[in-house]
Amino acid sequence: MSEPPRPGEYGVPQDPNIPPSYSMPGGAQYPPPAPDYSQQPPVSGGGYPPPTSGAGYQQPGGYQQPGGYQQPGGYQQPGGYQQPGQYGYQQPGGYAGAGPVGYANSDEKTWALIAHFGGIFFGFIAPLVALLVKGNESPTVKAHANEALNFHITWGIILFVGALLSICTFGVTLIVPWIIIIVFAIIAGMKANGGELYRYPMTYRFIK
């Protein structure tokens, strides 16, 4: 029985998938060599394929293993909320010395002006009346009346002593206190007219 013709013999076409260099005489063929991966071109981007395990591995879906976790401490509450008592926060209604006060109505403003300007003519009596009439109802009027009352009590005592010494000082100890009282009372009244509380200088505060 005759052997069938082999590729490459008698006009039988050779398998195009096998290079001729791997064909032996007589039609025998070597198996193709294993591919050389070291000669393969790198993947796009200039690097090697991403690792499938080990360091630098990133799981599908963008998940990254913990490592850069930051301990809580710089947490800030939403909305910029600031707790009371911190960073200069002052609760409503608190009196903190001189500064903007404002008035709830025109009646408060009137009594505040009486406390300051009235002291020029009536001394401590004017702020004392404002304190007794409106002080319990309005913290604003009370703050103005307290400042004016302390000032006029302090300088009323100085004025009384100056009057006793005016004979020896030719009236200097009487005139100077009057000038000081008038000047600072006008300044305080103008501040009160603009809605501010004026803190009198050179004043001993008998009433807190």
Mean pLDDT: 73
Q: Which strands sit side by side, in order, in the main sheet?
A: 1-2
- Helix content, binned percent: 25-40%
Q: How would you spell out the order of helices and strands?
A: EHHHHE
Low-confidence stretches: 74-99
Number of helices: 4
Instruction: Determine the N-to-C terminus distance.
Output: 133 Å
Structural class: mainly alpha
Beta content comes to under 5%
- Major sheet attributes: 2 strands, antiparallel
Q: How many DSSP-defined strands?
A: 2
Molecular shape: elongated
How large, in whole angstroms, is the Cα Rg?
Answer: 50 Å
Description:
This protein is mainly α and 208 residues long. Helix content is 38%, strand content 2%. Helix 1 packs antiparallel against helix 4 (172-193). The longest helix is centred in the C-terminal third of the chain and has 31 residues, at 139-169. It is elongated. 20% of the residues are buried. Mean pLDDT is 73; it is low at 74-99.
Keywords:
208 residues, mainly alpha, two-stranded antiparallel ribbon, 4 helices
Summary, kept brief:
With 208 residues, the protein is mainly alpha-helical. It has 4 helices and 2 strands, in the order βααααβ.
Summarize the SSE layout with pairings.
Blueprint: E1 99-100, H1 106-122, H2 125-134, H3 139-169, H4 172-193, E2 196-197
Helix pairs in contact: 1-2, 1-3, 1-4, 2-3, 3-4
